[in-house]
Amino acid sequence: MPKSNTIPVVLTIAGSDSGGGAGIQADIKAISATGSYAASVITAITSQNTLGVLDILPIPLAHIESQLDAVFQDLNIVAVKIGMLADADIINLVADKLEQYQPKHIVLDTVMVATSGDLLLKETAIGSLKDRLLPLASIITPNLPEAAALTGLAEPKDAEQIEHMVTAMRQLSTSAVLLKGGHLEASDESDDLLITQNETHRLSTERIRTPNTHGTGCTLSSTIASFLAQGEDMLSAVSHAKQYITQAIGHADLLKVGQGRGPVDHFFMLHQ
Fold this sequence. Notes:
By secondary structure, the chain is of the alpha/beta class. It is globular and about 45 Å long. Helix 1 (about 25-35) crosses helix 7 (about 215-230) and helix 3 (about 90-100) packs parallel to helix 4. It has one domain (about 10-270): UDP-N-acetylmuramoyl-L-alanine:D-glutamate ligase, CATH 3.40.1190.20. Strand 2 (about 35-50) and strand 3 (about 50-60) form a beta hairpin. It has a six-stranded mixed beta sheet with strand order 3-2-1-4-5-6. It has a three-stranded antiparallel beta sheet with strand order 7-8-9. It has eight helices and nine strands. InterPro entries: HMP/HMP-P_kinase_dom (IPR004399), PM/HMP-P_kinase-1 (IPR013749), Ribokinase-like (IPR029056). It is an enzyme of class 2 (transferase). Pathway: Cofactor biosynthesis; thiamine diphosphate biosynthesis. It comes from Vibrio plantisponsor.
């Protein structure tokens, strides 16, 4: 008989991607692949594939609320990853429920735009995101366009401009920020900055040249939540998540899924 161990439970609150590369589907794959148990609350249904987002159907608020109550009242949820929330009403509901149930770790992926460029968060909801969810988050994980939207600054175009954004990141009402530098495609390195009030840690890997990056933000944030749920400290969780997503991107071309921007390989370890 195998030994019985209590598996840490991670809840993902996000939208569904019918193509399976991002959103809830990517989150469940990433959480499972890194050794945690994945539960989910679906906030929206997208008609989506590797070519883009065709349609978005927000889930009724009452059903989002019932999903949240169902999982929190039964499961020992250690960490929560938040992805696509679509509008201010959903943001406020999720914030209310997180304040009610108070999970130990909250990883907020500030999802605003899909890899394809499609808008996933109404611009009128950005204020609600900043006011209600940022103060609750253990860490937020914006890419450069999202960081620009959160701060009102211009999107950085080089490493020097990213450094100037660190001060603005510290002024946001959240505990830590992982500022992702993946959009600086001219660079041979893929640098992310883990920013706290007192320290900045640079996490650097060699840039992998591939168009198949669908779901990278969802996957990275879910993996951070998974490692936090397993008891790692923030720097360790983010570092291990960075290593995981780098390998998942590195194996993405082998999947050959779809005709557009394909997904990363969440289970690369099974294909080696």
